[in-house]
Amino acid sequence: MSLVDLVSGYERAAGFDVPGAYAGVVLDHFKFGDVTAYLTGQPDSAYWANRGVIALLGCDCGEVGCWPLESQVLMGDDVVTWRGFGQPFRPQRDYGSFGPFTFRRSQYEGAAREAAAVVAERGSL
């Protein structure tokens, strides 16, 4: 199941307005610096670095800033955890029981490198 499906189901069950209006981050529009650094919670962009979160999903219109799902990314020795989810345009929403989601660090870093390679190949950075 995709993160879009998971958060959509959570938001519908919680009775949130505008539930699940998300899509993946469009790599062709990615302008946040190094993709690997971004996905590992160390974004180059001062905006994201100062907030302590990254947008894991953007709006279903294709624009991250329109309707993002944000999360903390915690890098452990062997695991990566997404937690502390939020919707900045609905700060009153409680995502406390959504997640956390944990991944094997080696697999996560490999997927982040693959995404960075796609972006570099397309010349999007």
Question: Could you explain the architecture of this structure?
Answer:
The chain is an alpha+beta fold and 125 residues long. It has one domain (3-122). It has four helices and five strands; from the N terminus they run αβααββββα. It has helices at 3-14, 35-39, 46-51, 105-122, and strands at 22-24, 54-59, 69-75, 79-86, 101-104. It has a five-stranded antiparallel beta sheet. It is globular.
Arithmetic mean of pLDDT:
89
Biggest sheet layout: 5 strands, antiparallel
Distance between the termini: 29 Å
**What's the helix count?**
4
Query: Largest beta sheet: what is the strand line-up?
Result: 1-2-3-4-5
Give the radius of gyration: 14 Å
- What overall form do the CA principal axes indicate? globular
Structural class: alpha+beta
User: What is the number of strand segments?
Assistant: 5
Strand/helix succession: HEHHEEEEH
Total count of domains:
1
Strand content: 15-25%
Stretches with pLDDT under 50, minimum 5 residues: none
Q: Give the helix level as a range of percent.
A: 25-40%
In short:
By secondary structure, the chain is α+β, with helices and mostly antiparallel strands.
Keywords:
33% helix; five-stranded antiparallel β-sheet; 4 helices; 125 residues; single chain; alpha+beta
Topology:
Elements: H1 3-14, E1 22-24, H2 35-39, H3 46-51, E2 54-59, E3 69-75, E4 79-86, E5 101-104, H4 105-122
